Request: fold
Amino acid sequence: MANGMVIQGRELSAGDLCLIRELLAEHPEWCRSRLSIELCSRWDWRNGQGRLKDMAARTLLLKLERAGQIRLPERRAPSPNGWRNQGLAASAPAAEPIAGPLSALRPLGISAVGPGSPDLPVFNGLLAGYHYLGHRNTAGENLRYLIRDRRGRPVACLLFGSAAWACAARDAWIGWSRAARGRNLPGLANNTRFLVVPWAAVPCLASHALGLAARRIRADWERKYGHPIYALETFIDRGRFRGTCYQAANWVRLGATAGRTRNDRCHRVRAPVKDIYFYPLVPDARQRLCAG
Reply:
């Protein structure tokens, strides 16, 4: 592994990789969870509220194993992600068609969907059943929103997570250095999923939903994670979508991706080209993201 490889937003040095290998060799009795907690403690890898980033560390270890860099101990129990996602699509059947002007649905209600919320099965089921990318459990910082119309019918859902580590067009537009990006990337959130239910044919519903989320996400994010965010990003598959609702909601198109995945270090893995959109949540978003 070359020095400076970034996984889960963390830049790993050769020394970091040696530490992981040493811990694996010295403590063969440790489970994966014990290893990830030890790494977080040694690196002092914490979120804005001071909690160890245990889930991010577990994902980092899995990615290293898939890359052939380490060999993790066998799982002691089945991964909970499998049963968490079983039957999600069946839990969100199609509903009666929703049509007409947006005014007939307003006021729309938006709610943050957390663990244990009665809206969580609805949110998960909608994304799993009707979003073209499906839905997986999200590691790291994230927020889920479910939007309902005045009659309480779900009409849209949005998922926000950690920003992409590197994106040439975005990074050039922001103007931050590599060091500033490393410091301030948590100030940027990625809209990784956005779904308007397919049985809703309502003009301006999508852009209105984006606006509802944008108006409250800063407060919700800081309340949950203890640090602010200053802007949002998203990546739109130009082979499927034109980004019209993002444009109508005043998101700015910054350019397009190069058609590579975040793990493509050898320029061999191709991916669909995506348009990059950016939405500042504060007037001086770029300056804050570039701050020292």
